[in-house]
Design brief:
Layout (H helix, E strand, L loop, with lengths): L1 H57 L2 H4 L3 H20 L5 H33 L6 H15 L5 H20 L9 H26 L5 H58 L15 H18 L5 H28 L1
Length: about 325
Amino acid sequence: MILAATALLWIAATILVQGQHGTVQAVRGDTSPALLDAVGAHAALSDADLAAWQSFRSGEAQLIGPGQQYQNDMTTASQDLERLAALEPSGGPGSQQLQTVSGQLVTYQGLVEQADAANRADIALGTASDHDLGYAYLTYASSSMRDPQGGLLASIDGLAALDRRSLGQQLTSPWTDPALLLTVAAAGAGVLASIIAARGFLLRRFRRVISPPLLAAAALACGLLAWMALVTLPADAAFAAARDTALPRLTGSWQAQIRAVDAEAAALRANAAGHASATSGGLNVTVTQSANGALDADLAAAGNSGGLPFGIPVLAVAIAVLACLGVKPRLDEYRR
């Protein structure tokens, strides 16, 4: 009975720890970075479009083209998409969508380059040109990016939707439910009950009031249950904080910045009064980095297994050995 209950405790505790750890690692290593890369790429591309319009409207384009901020944003977006491509399963819907995004990104960059070339040609004509061709190409570029029906940003949002769906399934995984600890507690209670039954057997048959090995086995079983609680409950709390607070705060920060950039870009495209020489605050990297750090800290805490993958089998074997040491001498005595 003791050996069977100990084996059940070993199996239940191992499954719980491995299931929880695997879920957290999948969120931290794959789905969460994939979603954040998609959202970050959207933000960087929106800001790149804004930067290009600012350069043209302010007249800086005649010297620096779309501008350094545009180049920086395009580099950031490309890096985000490269990381996203590495995280997407090969041959899946996300991988196919990325191919579409890559083609649209090349198209957008080509139109911006044409806008820059046309603008420089117009400058060479001096007062004989009204610079309409350069603005026309830049408008085409913005339309190819911001078209809600199949534009570049819409395609990236489609990627983000796939990742958000996968992430949502993992964030609500039953492996992160603290109630599962009750299963391990029930298995531990089975070990303790079998030890108590063995102690009663020894008392009735052999008048042995105390069996030190059985007492040690019971202490180890209680210690394992306490260890599981001390590791699992804080990990579950950290995962809940990441799911309910840190991740929504980070994605909300990105979305707020995207909305602000989009509004300013729309005003510049319309050449609204007061925006011809406007300068953007751009994306606030400090805010998003801080929120991302908080999310990563929560997920790191949630993934902390506290040495349980090694401790569970060691303690289970120790409980089984002590149980044998407590019972076998009495059985040998009975045989004699």
